[in-house]
Amino acid sequence: MPRQAKSKHTKGRENPGTQKSPRAIESKAQVEVAEEAIRLRAYEIYLARSGAPGDPVADWLQAEQELRTRQKSS
């Protein structure tokens, strides 16, 4: 049976240059939470139209603006 060539890379090790700092991971989580909040608010705006035609992008932008305004006043 032929031998398999040894890999130059060690399994399970990350390249030190690709590790993320705790702050980067934390801010990414905050962005995801904000995006989910925007998504939920945009859906609420859609439901409030009761099936009337509308623009999903406008709903998203309105939701984003409302949540940013609410966040600034907190």
TL;DR of this structure?
Helices cover 61% and strands 0% of the residues. By secondary structure, the chain is mostly helical.
Which terms summarize this structure?
74 residues; mainly alpha; elongated
Question: Topology, please?
Answer:
Layout: H1 22-48, H2 56-73
Q: Could you give the count of β-strands?
A: 0
Structural class: mainly alpha
- Radius of gyration (CA) equals 22 Å
Q: Bin the strand percentage.
A: under 5%
* Count of individual helical segments: 2
3D architecture notes:
The protein has 2 helices and no strands. The mean pLDDT is 79. It is mostly helical and 74 residues long. The termini are far apart. 61% of the residues lie in helices and 0% in strands. It has one domain (21-73). Helix 1 crosses helix 2 (56-73). The radius of gyration is 22 Å and the shape is elongated.
